[in-house]
Amino acid sequence: MVAKSTFYGVSVLLVAMLVISSVVAIAYYNDYQRQLSVNDHQSTELQHFISRYGAVLQANILIDFGNGTRDWYNATEVQPGWNLYTLTLAVTNGNVNSTCCEFGSHLVTGIYGVQNQINQNKAWLVWTYNTTSSWQPAQEGADLINVYNDSVFAWTFCSYSPSTGNPECPIGTP
Amino acid sequence: MGNTRNIAVVAVFTAAVVGSDFALAPYANFKLMDVTVFLVAYVFGFRQGAAVAVLSETIWSVVSPWGFAGAFTPFLVGGELLFAVAGWGASRVWGKDGRALSPTALFIGATLAICAFAWDFEANAANALIATWPDTSLSQVIVYELQGFVFPTPLAHELWDFVLGAVFAPAAIVAMPRVRRA
Questions:
Q1: Cα-Cα-Cα-Cα dihedral of A132, A136, A141, A146, to 10°?
Q2: Which residue out of A2, A4, A5 would a mutagenesis test of the B interface target, given it has the greatest number of B Cβ atoms within 10 Å?
Q3: B100 pLDDT band (50/70/90 cuts)?
Q4: Chain B residues with CB inside 8 Å of A6's CB?
Q5: Would the CB atoms of A23 and B117 count as touching at under 8 Å?
Q6: Domains plus CATH for chain B?
Q7: What stretches in chain A show pLDDT beneath 50?
Q8: Which of A60, A87, A98, B62 is deepest in the core (most CB within 10 A)?
Q9: Confidence of residue B142 (pLDDT cuts 50, 70, 90)
Q10: A20–B149: do the CB atoms touch at under 8 Å?
Q11: Sign of CA dihedral A133, A134, A137, A139
Q12: Contact B58/B104 with Cβ under 8 angstroms?
């Protein structure tokens, strides 16, 4: 026969465990609801910005492997504030090798496993395009080139002049 | 003589509670008030415990570093009286077992944890009442209750009271009557 005091004690202990677990559950529920609310707020803000500044931007980028393979990524969706390096990472799913950041930008050393060959003066070079001057070798690193709506860029794997660094390969019209 | 002793008990423990409240002021919800009121009621009886609860909570409501509690004071005092009732009731059930972490110690800790929950629950309801009066509705009280149980404050209150009850209270239950006899 269990003593009455033990029965009361065990009952109190069980109720206390119930109370403490309930408090944990309520606290978790509260935190969950708060996070939902924060997410809703941020989602609403994002919708507001998209409707105000236009949805996403679109850009075009060519990756020319120098062996006849030319991959165009047209109408690639980009976000305001992206640069060419970000865009390159996005279209290649991160298949980019680079070093960072001697001149304020990543130096791309390989794309899709095709690595720069410094001994043979071959490397990945960046080009920008506009309707007035067509293709031009970029004068700055990929991080410093902003991407706008309908921007056109190219990465070409080709030889360059060891003295000037200028590309020594032609690039076709987009 | 008995009255003098009772007054001395109430005065000493009220001073101890208020003093410890100030000492522990930087640590919200870590107070010795709950366990002290419980212990005084457990060892000396309900009236003494209730007196310590009313006096210490009233004084703390006025002189606390966070300012005067105002209309909240009666609810704080009422909540603290729960510990006096629990201490008196527990003494009638479990008697004087002075071993820390014994089954009795765990039962006392559990009782204190339940009282802490009841205190938090009552305080949240009081908040709702004061903030929404005279348009108070049940749904508003529920909202205040849910918002009041935000991690980790109430949980810390209950666990702290449980630990004090299970570890500290049994030793005090044995020691306090000896001090009284000395």
A1: 20
A2: A5
A3: low
A4: 103
A5: yes
A6: 2-181 (1.10.1760.20)
A7: 173-174
A8: A87
A9: confident
A10: no
A11: positive
A12: no
